[in-house]
Design brief:
mainly beta, 76 residues
């Protein structure tokens, strides 16, 4: 998974399925916090499947599911 957001660039290798889970309900929740105001385009690239489109607001329900792992990034 690669995240590009202005001058912030991060490449992370994630393995699926997570833990002892398998099938369509195993994966990752990505949370990105931007500490500086920015008008830069946020780009997420993956060879996996994005199930829920990126959005701002409350964490998605998958964050508390045992078959999902939280991947957190702080853009500075």
């Amino acid at each position: 998974m690669t995240v590009d957001w202005g001058s912030f660039h991060r490449n992370v290798i994630l393995c699926n399925p997570y833990g002892n889970c398998s099938g369509p309900i195993a994966g990752f929740v990505l949370m990105v916090r931007n500490t500086m105001p920015s008008g830069n385009l946020f780009t997420l690239t993956t060879n996996g499947r994005i199930v829920r489109a990126p959005y701002q607001g409350d964490p998605p329900p998958e964050i508390s599911h045992a078959c999902y792992r939280l991947e957190s990034m702080r853009a500075r």
